Amino acid sequence: MSNERVVKQLLRNALYTHSKQHPAPWEAQVPTKMGWIDEPPHLVLEEILKTDIKGITPALIQAKRRIGQRMVGIYLGVYALYVAVHVFFPTVPGIPCSGVSLGLIGGVAMMLFAVLMALTYHLLCSRVEKRLAPLLKS
Amino acid sequence: MLYEQSQLAVILFLSVVAIVVGVSIQLVRGVTTPAGYFAAGGRIHWGVNGVAFIGDYISAASFLGISGMIATLGYDGFLYSVGFLSGWIVALFMVAEPLRRKGYFTFTDAIDSTFNSRGLRFVASLCTIVVSVFYLIPQMVGIGSLVTPLFGIPHYIGVLIVGVVVTIIVATSGMVATTYVQFVKGVLILVVSVILTLFMLQRGIMLPEHMQHRDHRPVQTLEMENQGNQYVLRTPEYHLAPHWDTAPAYAKGFVNVVHAGETSPWYAQKHSDTQLFLRQTQYIERFADGTLHYNGAPATSGRVFLVGTMEEIVHRGQQVPYTGALGALEFLRTMYSSKVNIWPHATYISDRGQMQVFHQRTVPAADMFKSGGMFRLDTGGWSARLDFISLMLALVCGTAALPHILIRYYTVPSQAAARKSTVVAIGGIGFFYLLSLFLGFGAMGSGFLNIMDTNMAVPLLARSFGTVLFAIVSAVAFTAVLGTVSGLILATSGAVAHDIMDRLMGIHMSATEKVIAARLSAVVVGCIAIYLGIVFEGMNVSYLAGWAFALAAATNLPALLMALFWQGATSKGLVASMLVGMSSALTLILLSPEMYVRYGLLASEAPLPLNNPALVALPLSWVTLVVVSRCTTNSASPR
User: Fold this and answer.
1) Which band of pLDDT confidence, cut at 50, 70 and 90, is reported for residue A49?
2) pTM to 2 decimals?
3) Structure confidence at residue A10 (pLDDT)
4) Alpha carbon distance A59, B238 (integer Å)
5) pLDDT at A24
6) Mean pLDDT of chain B
7) Alpha helix locations (H) across B347-414?
8) pLDDT digits (tens, 9 = 90+) for B338-380
């Protein structure tokens, strides 16, 4: 798939309308989803493709946002599980494990998981940026 | 005396002060625009900014408080650090790049970027000021816990010195100087923490009689026996106080004993049907006028003695008096299998005032590796569990809403740089909290623990290795305060000068005049910070910082996230959300059990069992935002 087709596909995925009171002018031109939008609705698809706003495009913004939302959901889910274990099974963190307590191992694992998630997020976002960089520069 | 004044610590501290003030004055000529003052011109490298994040975030509460809590409470203190670090994930994934994309100077700019609403700007800047002040108080108060033992000077002099230094830093070069102060602080904290941890692992664990630099004094024990329906003490110099068995102390398990004209509580342990052992305690008396006495005298009298000893050390299955050098995991395993002397406390109201009494108890150290020191999750019922959930919620949601953290995102040149600097921060802060785990457990058995001032756990652990390391760690602790306070003063001065004077009141100023206004605001805020640090002397540092997180989470986070991501948010919805979040959080804090203890009352008398308001205030704020936004429209014109 050529870079331009990739961008168009990404833009189609990224263009959302947010309210029936403010319909986007391009709705009749490309399929949209109900959801949240970041950029002003008056920008049409062709203008977005031609516009280089210092390397930032709605597609890039939306792609990174979705990565962030999914990853924060994953991390907060694990965090909620960690808290829930302490609340509903308060004796579980005290179980001996590898010469220390299970709770201590869990806490250290949460910290390492946070660092791992941060690095993963950075790598995923960097990959998206690199993918769109040639088109933005052309 | 509990602490020895170290000339080296004074020299190091003055050197740090001279360097940071010199750097600030050197940079002042380059700061001529508001962008330069508030955001360092957006030219800070992501690596520098990442380390500056570490220096900005690791305040006295983290550097001193977390290790202190682990040293006295064990695992429950460690849970704080898990929550603190988790908050950075929310900041990275949800806030970092969108905030940088807005590209202005303050938290208010980000919130108001789409709405251009005067009401929203006013409320957002007000919330910035309130949250920053809440976080500022424990930092300024924490200065006193360092300067008094180190330099022997009164609390207010220490607050005055540090307050003036920080004000000079911020008022001269703004964000540029603040960034480099925080960068240096971040590096120093990590390096010193690594060195102290390595020293501690190299020394290993030992019983108190083998410790160097320590005058080992076992806790005194008296024998009390029943002689013909009357209890007497076998030691002739000690006498039971009149009505000891009907006093409030007795209901808590303490017996009032008179010695040399002074009455003190002793912890009663039943030995047999006719005999009790009374163990010496340490206690804090809070009188009606707010005066505090430690072991029956002011803090400077030197009656407080160091604790934190091992009762029995089991290393590789064998009982030993000392272990020698240990690896990281081996250290934890040895601690886990040994016995340690802890000092839990009880609080009661006596005829003289509020008494907080600490008594020694020997427990398997494995008990310190599970919850129970602070959070009574298995015995405290649902109030304890809800309080725990509320705290963990505040910690994970608060970081991404702290104004002095958010403004740092404007200092880097791009969104990618904002992201990278946050990743660096997460790595550094995570590494620091791992080291705090070792420092905390190391302090627990070091024999150099002041149970009545746990914020000194890390400096006193360093003291156990000699005065040089003590001086270095104390100087670094000072920089911990400098870095965070400078960020807070900068955030607050930005709210005053940029948000209120410039954007809200519309006072027409040239770029130079705006910088002057910002500098003057920094001076005023610095003076207020000094005043607060003096007035709130004696307050616990960690609790106040925790409340600041809850306040930020309830007040700022819903508004920030919805303003960034939800097109349906209206200015009125955001205003209502922040006001409801702030008022509900403040109300719940004032009615909390912890504050009732500060009032001189008992925690059980508080109307609400929650010490942390996030569980109620955060959802309330969010619901308010959604409901009001649905019912209103944006009336102001966009930018």
Assistant:
1) very low
2) 0.87
3) 59
4) 80
5) 43
6) 88
7) 381-398, 403-406
8) 999 999 999 898 888 889 999 999 999 999 999 988 888 888 7
B546 pLDDT more than 80: no
Counted domains in chain A: 1
A 37-96 residues with CB < 8 A to B: 37-38, 55-56, 61, 64-65, 68-69, 71-72, 75-76, 79, 82-83, 86-87, 90-91, 93-94, 96
Alpha-carbon distances of A44 from A8, A40, B98, B202, rounded to whole Å: 12, 10, 22, 66
Residue of A83, A91, A112, A129 to mutate for B, most B C-beta atoms under 10 A? A83
What are the boundaries of each domain within chain B?
Answer: 7-25+33-204+379-631, 210-369
Q: In this structure, are residues B313 and B307 in contact, taking their beta carbons and an 8 Å threshold? A: no
- Identify the pLDDT of residue B571: 92
Smallest Cβ–Cβ distance between A121 and the set B92, B370, B434 belongs to: B92
- CB B544 within 8 Å of CB B138: yes
pLDDT one-digit tens code per residue, B223-257: 988 887 788 888 888 989 988 888 899 999 999 99
Band (A12; pLDDT cuts 50, 70, 90): low
A13: pLDDT strictly greater than 70: no
Cβ burial of B214 (10 Å; 0-12, 13-18, 19+) is middle
Are the beta carbons of A125 and B416 separated by less than 8 Å?
yes
pLDDT confidence of residue A54: 47
A105 touching B, CB under 8 A?
Answer: no
Token pair recorded at residue B559: 């508004």
Amino acid at residue number B431? F
3-state secondary structure of B482: helix
DSSP sequence for A76-138:
HHHHHHHHHHHHH-TTGGGSEETTEEHHHHHHHHHHHHHHHHHHHHHHHHHHHHHHHHHHHH-
Nearest CA in chain A to B430: A111
pLDDT in tens, B121-136: 999 999 999 999 888 8
Instruction: Retrieve residue B161's tokens.
Output: 């010195």
Strand B318-320: give its sheet, edge to edge. Answer: B318-320, B310-315, B339-342, B361-364
Query: What's the gap between Cα B266 and its chain centre?
Result: 31
**How many interface pairs between A and B have CB atoms less than 8 angstroms apart?**
135
Q: A93 contacts in B (CB within 8 Å)? A: 75, 370-371
Residue B410 has pLDDT above 80, yes or no: yes
Residue B122 CA to residue B143 CA, distance in Å, equals 32
> Could you list the residue range(s) of the whole structural domain that residue A75 is in?
3-137
Establish if A113 touches chain B: CB-CB under 8 angstroms.
no
- Using the predicted structure, report yes or no on whether residue B155 has a pLDDT greater than 90: no
Q: Which chain B residue's Cα is nearest to A112?
A: B430
Record: contact B396-A79, CB cut-off 8 A: yes
Q: Kindly give the pairing relationship between strand A33-34 and strand A96-97.
A: unpaired
Residue B193 has pLDDT above 90, yes or no: yes
Q: What is the pLDDT of residue B480?
A: 84
Chain A nearest-CA distance from B42, in A, is 15
Hey, which CATH number is domain B7-25+33-204+379-631, 3.40.30.10, 3.40.50.150, 1.20.1730.10, 3.40.120.10?
Answer: 1.20.1730.10
Q: How far is it, in rounded angstroms, from Cα B315 to Cα B6?
A: 35
pLDDT class for A76, splitting at 50, 70, 90?
A: very high
3-state SS assignment for residue B638: coil
How far is residue B248 CA from its own chain's centroid?
A: 32
**Contact across the interface for A121 and B423, Cβ inside 8 Å:** yes
**3-class secondary-structure state, position B601:** coil
